[in-house]
Amino acid sequence: MDKDISSAVIRRLPRYLRYLEELMNEGFERISSSELSKRMNVTASQIRQDLNNFGGFGTQGYGYNVDHLHDEIAKILGLNTVHPVIIIGAGNLGQAITRYIRSGNMSFDIIGLFDIDRKLSNKSVAGRKIMMYEEMPAFLSKNRVDIAALTIPREDALRVASDVIRNGVKAIWNFTHTDIPVPDDVVVENVHLSDSLMQLSYNLAVRTCSGST
User: Fold this and answer.
1) Residue 211 pLDDT
2) Helix, strand or coil, per DSSP, at residue 130
3) 44, 51, 119, 133: most buried, per Cβ within 10 A?
4) Which of residues 60 and 142 earns the better pLDDT score?
């Protein structure tokens, strides 16, 4: 991809993919940008601008072939290959993420769970055995791992991130409620659940205030 694409556009692509999957399940073969805009509650112009960053994919007078557009967006998002993932922190959140990913038809495969709590040793979550943290370096030396998901206390985040990076992992899915600095050749996606909840609280407060005036 020769040009830089804004992060806002990239973050909208999974939403396009979800709606296209719904259309495929409903038996749609094609859809126009205006029809898609009504479903997604965004403007047709926004849809066309977003997709034109990657070549457009539409035909004037026809619209978009749903299957083709779905496949192309999946390729852009790197979903045409399976990404091996490990979960570090096999508590409630780590187990929930494992079950969610393992139950869906996704391009991600949880191949290992790790924790320091010896009471969890050899227990299984969605068919994956929980291993002890000290086993992780040997596991990473024998298995390709694209992504490490960190569902651990924030005070452990930097140390654990350093460990996985040192062992060759190039992407971190960070649920630790603290930002993690990484080298240029490593990518990190910070998922701050509390931030999302506070944004929801703000929107609720604004709506409540608007309704009372």
Assistant:
1) 67
2) strand
3) 51
4) 142
Ordered by where they begin, the domains of the chain are 7-76 (1.10.10.10), 83-195 (3.40.50.720)
Cα torsion through 14, 18, 23, 27, rounded to 10: 110
Task: Determine if residue 37 is left, alpha or beta; phi over 0 gives left, psi from -120 to 50 gives alpha, anything else beta.
Answer: alpha
Cα gap 184→163, rounded to integer Å: 16
Q: What is the C-alpha separation between 131 and 122, in angstroms, rounded?
A: 6
Is residue 89 within 8 Å of 51, Cβ to Cβ?
A: no
Dmax (CA) for the chain in angstroms is: 63
Question: Two tokens at 44?
Answer: 């047709």
**Rounded percentage of the chain residues whose pLDDT exceeds 90:** 81
What secondary structure does DSSP assign to 1-44, as a single string? Answer: --S---HHHHHHHHHHHHHHHHHHHTT--EE-HHHHHHHHTS-H
Which strand (E) or helix (H) includes residue 63?
A: strand 63-65
